[in-house]
TrEMBL record:
It is an enzyme of class 2 (transferase). Residues 216-257 form a coiled coil. It comes from Rheinheimera tilapiae. SMART domains: GGDEF. Residues 285-418 form the GGDEF domain. Signal peptide: none annotated. Its EC number is 2.7.7.65. The chain crosses the membrane at residues 20-41, 154-173. This is Diguanylate cyclase domain-containing protein. Keywords: Coiled coil, Membrane, Nucleotidyltransferase, Transferase, Transmembrane, Transmembrane helix. The keyword Nucleotidyltransferase applies.
Amino acid sequence: MPVKPSSLRPLSLVRRLTRLNLLILAGTIFSTVLLLAAVTWHSARERHLAEAAVNTEQLALNLAASLVFLDKAAAAAELQTYAQRQDVLDLAVYQPDMQLFASQPEKVSRLWLQADSYQQLDWLQLQVRRPIRFKAETVGSVVVTESLAGLQQALLSLLLLFGLIVILALFAASRVLHLVQRKALAPVVELAELADYAARKQDYSIRGTVRRRDEVGRLTERLNELFKRIEIWQQDLQQQLQQQQQARQQLDKLAHSDHLTGLANRLYFETELPRAVAYAATEQQTLALLFIDLDNFKTVNDRWGHDAGDEVLQIVAKRMQSQLRQTDRLFRLGGDEFAVLLTDIVQPEWAMQLAERLIQSVREPMWLKNSLMPVGATVGLAFCPQDSTEAVMLLQQADQAMYQAKRAGKNTCRRFTDGED
């Protein structure tokens, strides 16, 4: 039986309307996905660059001592450890004259710029250069080159997932469009506006409203799932950045702490002393530096072993710490040497009295392994600005005063006096 022409018109009109609406819907969703991909790619690249800049600054701090002492082995070990990070292509450390000091691997990328400090990126790589400073002096620079291939692969996987969801959504929409009237197209327009808003505002916490459990409702669910995935991905990325920041802070804390006593170590002391001296000189305050050397500590190590020596150091550190104010800082410089920074001293005699208390606290009976430890303390004292306004000179003066006290019979304190041996 032949089909009447009048019966072809509605079918043809429905198909044309379905194709037209699908074309508009597909164009809107795919353009939105591309815009989301572009925004996500740009944001991820910038965050990757910021993370690389933070890590490079930390690497420059870790490499300072290696450059100062020209220790290529230590620098190579530090670079090898850093090179284990994902996406790192190569690392290079340069001396001030731009001579290559150490690298990982041997052949490295060229410098993108000649500036002392910069961070640049292109579509495939990024490069960060930071100066290496030691005591406010530039001793070299470090250059980190990283690949963006992993980021591109993650974005491509996300785009493929987006494409699959969009295709499924369009398929569902094509099944429902030929059954609905013009009013039924309103939810599709709402979805398009929702996706466009999310792309412009980068707000993926919004969700579409499922008005009916039909094809359009499933399309809304798919788009909500897409937003949920992006929102979770952003949260995970932010959490990773926070964890990396916490890890960097923990590494910085470990770098400035003595693992045995828990006190600030020599590296921190060498950073803090010039700062405290400069502040005291500027603010016209009195700063006292106590250089402390334990007496008979070698005897403890030789007779009772290094484990007993470690316990002695821990006990001595706690005893001396108990004698200080909250504003005073106690450092372990290494071995059996300690230092104390006393800020804002009103009367120099107070520092001498504190030194006597420190000596007395160390000389309190100390029993280990059923034996009385024969340890004591000798203290050298120097003042800023009375004795010196230079950190290096002040430390030398306190050390000289300590040796004067040693010659005077140990277990005592001497203040630096110019002209004495």
